[in-house]
Specification:
Helix content: 25-40%
Order of helices and strands: HEHEEHEEH
Number of helices: 4
Structural class: alpha+beta
CATH class of one domain: Alpha Beta
Strand order of the largest sheet: 2-3-1-4-5
CATH superfamily of one domain: ACT domain
Oligomer: single chain
Distance between the termini: 76 Å
Shape: globular
Largest sheet: 5 strands, antiparallel
Strand content: 15-25%
């Protein structure tokens, strides 16, 4: 017979729940779009970045997250895919705010942080 202490028994009972913590992000229902914004400077909080990005994007933003080193993840809540893509482009066009924007999903869109060689000439 296996003898366990109450502490070890509690840890063993939590073991099946650890499978839920895989580190995967929850899927975003379409047409909403999860983006990662790399900003020119670090901000005091992700909420400030969310407000600035929402003013640029002209769409509501939710689930903001500070990833550190001037990178922020958020979800654009859009009525359709074209509106989301246009909102991402508006955020990326403000070079005083964003160095780059990475839109996640099946049709991944990456607006580069640095211009490529041909466009820099």
């Amino acid at each position: 017979m296996l003898m366990t202490t109450p502490r070890a028994g509690a840890l063993l009972s939590l073991l099946p729940l650890c499978g839920c913590l895989t580190g995967e992000l929850a899927p975003v229902p379409p047409p909403d779009l999860r983006i990662t914004v790399t900003t020119r400077s670090e901000y005091a909080s992700a909420v400030i970045v969310k407000i600035h990005a929402a003013n640029l994007a002209l769409v509501p933003i939710r689930d903001e997250e500070d990833m550190g080193a001037g990178r922020y993840r958020m979800v654009l809540a859009c009525p359709d895919t074209a509106t989301c893509r246009a909102a991402v482009q508006r955020i990326a066009d403000d070079r005083f705010f964003a160095l780059g924007v990475d839109a996640e999903g099946p049709n991944r869109q990456r607006i580069p942080i640095k211009p490529n060689r041909e466009s820099a000439r």
